[in-house]
Amino acid sequence: MLYYSYSQRVGGMCMLIAVSGKNFLAFENFEIMFSDGLSVITGESGSGKTLLLKAIQALVGSLPAVSPPGGYVEGVFSLEEKQRAFLNSQGYDTGHEVVISVDFTGQRVIFRVDGRLSSKQFVQNLLADSLEVHSQHSTVRLLDPTTHHMIVDNAISDDRKLLEEYSDLFREYNGVCRRLSSLSFDEQTAEREEEVLQFQLDEIDTARLDPKSDSEIEKTYVRLRDSEILMEAFEKLISILRTEDTSAYARLNEGIEIMQSLDRFGYHDESAKLIEALNVLQQFCHNIEEELASLGYDEESVQIVEARINLIQNLKRKYGGSLEGVFKHRGSIVESLSRIREDREEKERLSRKSKDVLAKLWHTGKEIDALREKQSKELVKSVRKHLKDLKMDETDLRFVLIPEEVPRSYGTSRVILEIKTHNSSPYTEIGKVASGGELSRLLIAIECALKGFLPVSTVVFDEIDVGVGQRMGDIMAEKLKELSQGVQTIVITHLPQVAQIADAHFAVSRSTGNREFISTVSRLEGKSRVRELEEMSGKRLLVSREDKCGQ
Hints:
Distance between the termini: 53 Å
Largest sheet: 6 strands, antiparallel
Structural class: alpha/beta
Number of helices: 19
Strand order of the largest sheet: 2-1-4-5-6-7
Shape: elongated
CATH class of the domain at 1-130 and 456-551: Alpha Beta
């Protein structure tokens, strides 16, 4: 594992300090320690320079299309304070630097952060917007029209709270819309369900069920229905026990008289027991007479009780099989009605809120449109100056705002970067007209104009000078040097002028080995650097030819 101590020129920024690898594509081993200013990578075409770019991209979660089995890449990054805080919140004991490694096992790709297993998503989130890679015709923010607004927004130094406010409103609006869709609330279906539930509730409540009295009603019905039989039996029982001459009551009285006549012989207790038996008999007869009085047969009362029984049985059959089941079903009806009404109220509340947030979105979006209009004009002025330096006097650009039908994440208008390469040509979307050389110089002009506002701290250019002639080399070099004073800049280049002014110079070469070829990279200093610059400029070849002619 590599470890570098690094003194940053720009304190607190996330930069790529070093990258190393083993068995990564054509490289058996490589180690590079970048400058915090301008670092260049040179070498012949096909030597493997772009493979180093793929290694850097792998470290930030953009994996190569072909995974090198057994390959390994490691990078050392300096950290911003917010990145340190994020890692510390995740349990990492991280200082100002972090080591990220990518292990290509052949079956899967394994990411590690400071030696701990991690995920690609975690690494991407950690290094989001810290490193930007520009390769030929794949400059995302320049050629992708959906991101052109970012170019303007990066140049906004004031009123950024307006952009943050819009972003917050858009997230809030999306959240409200998601909650609205998750309700799955259809008003017509809800009304039908509510009507049925309300009918059932009214039917149960109208019955005024009473668990205690309704459980006794069948016994009452039986008594009313059979009251004649009961009355006859009770009357006969009263006659036997008390009213007949030979009734139990009369016989007990006779027995009491006989026993009382024997009291002088010591049978007082026996007399008392007979008297007690007589009292019990009297109370029993009294109870029977009261029961008899309550059994008066009434056809209307029977019909009322029968109707009540039928009502209860019907409710049992429909709603639970028992009185307890009916009451339980009533509880579920109340809950369902409450849920429907709460969902309706929630839908109405969310609908009102969505309209309110949407209105604020439109209002804030229009303010952002005005801000972008103003800022884009200032940005265009700055870019024009750099284009002039780059000998692109006839090239002009403009940012066009196209209103959207609905608010988008980036605003209420789409921002499109258009250019024209000649005074007589019309403005056209940049990705449709820019040639390789024009695109390279335009990119440099925009990056230089934005260097004080770029959210990224490291920019990597893959052969940015393709299509740029030697005559433009000095100017291109000056612009890259200017850019590197605000942003760490790594350039793969064929221009000796760019390589000559670099703070760190690395050369890639290839040789034949066990495989088809092996790439190596080394840092050039002193004579080796001079020799590389001469070869890049063709001076050594020219001297060699002159020597031969002299001979």
